[in-house]
Amino acid sequence: MEQPTAGGRTRSIPSLYLSQASLTADPFYKHRIIADPEWSLLTVPRLTELCLQHIVHNFEKNPILDCLLPEHQRKVLDRLSTSLPLTVTANLISDEDYWKRCCTERWQVYDISNYGDSWKRMFFERHLENILKCFIPNTTDPNQVLELIPLCKDYVRKLEVDQFLPPVKVDQKEERDDLSDTGSESGLGEVSVHHYDLGVLITSLPHLEELHLTYGVKDCGMNFEWNLFNFTYQDCCNLAVAVKMCHNLKVFKLTRSQVDDDKTRLLVCNLLDHPSLVELDLSHNLIRDKGAQAVGKLINCSKLEILNLCNNHICHLGAQALAQALAENSTLISLNLRLNCVEDEGGEAIGHALLTNTTLKSIHLGSNNLSEPTATFFSQVLAQNTTLTSINFSCNHLGLDGGKQLLDGLAANKALTEFDLRLAEVGQETEYLIHQIVWANREAARLGSLQHPPAKPLCRKHSREQ
């Protein structure tokens, strides 16, 4: 709209002023605001919120966290992506909720109690385990493991690797061509089948306390070949040296890996005088008497408390060597020899050792082709030994007379709380009577623990006062 001026000219009046003038001229209008009905002041982000969004969006390039207020840290952590590089998050983020998201988005099945109730520990242990299970020697880049060490070394306490892949088998024709090009025919058709060397890794994990290993391939299906399950002597050498250098290791399990006598002796040689090893599991292997004799030496040169040699090929000579060590040992509390073939000669030797041993609490001799002579000797053990709380004689041939002698030996025994005689051919009545005695001992032990609970450790303040 134009308005005349004093010189005859005209000027335009802004629409804003025009509307104000017209509104003022309206006697019935007092106040009116024209705005977008969907617009609201609440939709405008606060400056703090914009800053937090910027931090989250640029966290990978510029990780900012420690300098934020606690409530702002919480908002940033809740929004961070779980796919951020570990080089950014590993040593910066300790928040358990963030690592819980990382775990639950990656794995459907988990038990956090197996990881000390720490989500961060669970993530790094399982992540490292997955890399090792999929590592193919001469194919996978070793830096995948080496670069992870400084990121996970403070959090890994236990490793359970139930698969090690061998190198990819080279086609024989291609290999022949390669050898002919180099003018060498030595080693034709031979392929290195050694697995990944754990030495650099486990010696770089200062808090590693448990190592569970199985050398083999899972779910190989129609691609089955025996060399997929070949734990070589070189593999054993590498592993033995690494375990020796892992001074904080408390539990070592090497199962289902075709460990024979020579490999057992090599392992034992490196485990002698180990400063912290308390549990050794070599079950489901190929250990015979010579390997068992080597383990017998280890029993008295270490701090072993739990020894599992289940499902091997140990006969009476190996059992006698173990019994000799057991008679002098003062640390072992559990011995598992199930599924071997120690027979009565080995069973009697072990029983004789238990007449003097005062530390062993549990022994498993199931499926060892034992018969009445072993039962006769163990009746003396039951009458004299006050330390044993668990015996397993299942799947043997103790016979009716052997069962009666065990029952007689239990007459004054108050310590035994578990006695497995299933399929031991001792007779239903004898098995029932033995069960009644063992049940009474178990109830007496339970009531005793209720009446005399273990003393609670004094707090620091009280101990200073005393």
What is the residue-mean pLDDT, rounded to a whole number?
A: 87
Q: Strands of the largest sheet, in order across it? A: 3-4-5-6-7-8-9-10-11
Helix-strand sequence: EEHHHHHHHHEHHEHEHEHEHEHEHEHEHH
| Main sheet characteristics | 9 strands, parallel
Number of helices: 19
**C-alpha Rg (nearest Å):** 36 Å
β-strand amount: 5-15%
Distance between the ends: 98 Å
Q: What structural class do the secondary elements suggest?
A: alpha/beta
In which range does the helix fraction lie?
40-55%
What is the overall silhouette?
elongated
Total number of strands: 11
User: Unreliable segments (pLDDT under 50, ≥5 consecutive)?
Assistant: 13-21, 172-176, 178-191, 459-466
Q: Summed up, what is this model?
A:
With 466 residues, this protein is an alpha/beta fold. The protein is 43% helix and 8% strand.
Key terms for this structure?
9-stranded parallel beta sheet; two-stranded antiparallel sheet; 466 residues
Please explain how this structure is put together:
- The protein is 43% helix and 8% strand.
- It is built from 19 helices and eleven strands.
- The chain has helices spanning 15-25, 47-57, 70-79, 86-89, 96-106, 119-133, 143-146, 149-152, 172-182, 199-202, 233-245, 261-271, 289-299, 316-328, 343-354, 372-384, 399-409, 428-451, 460-465; strands at residues 2-4, 10-12, 158-161, 210-213, 251-254, 279-281, 306-308, 334-336, 362-364, 390-392, 418-420.
Record the SSE blueprint.
Blueprint (H helix, E strand, L loop, with lengths): L1 E3 L5 E3 L2 H11 L21 H11 L12 H10 L6 H4 L6 H11 L12 H15 L9 H4 L2 H4 L5 E4 L10 H11 L16 H4 L7 E4 L19 H13 L5 E4 L6 H11 L7 E3 L7 H11 L6 E3 L7 H13 L5 E3 L6 H12 L7 E3 L7 H13 L5 E3 L6 H11 L8 E3 L7 H24 L8 H6 L1
Parallel strand pairs: 3-4, 4-5, 5-6, 6-7, 7-8, 8-9, 9-10, 10-11
Antiparallel strand pairs: 1-2
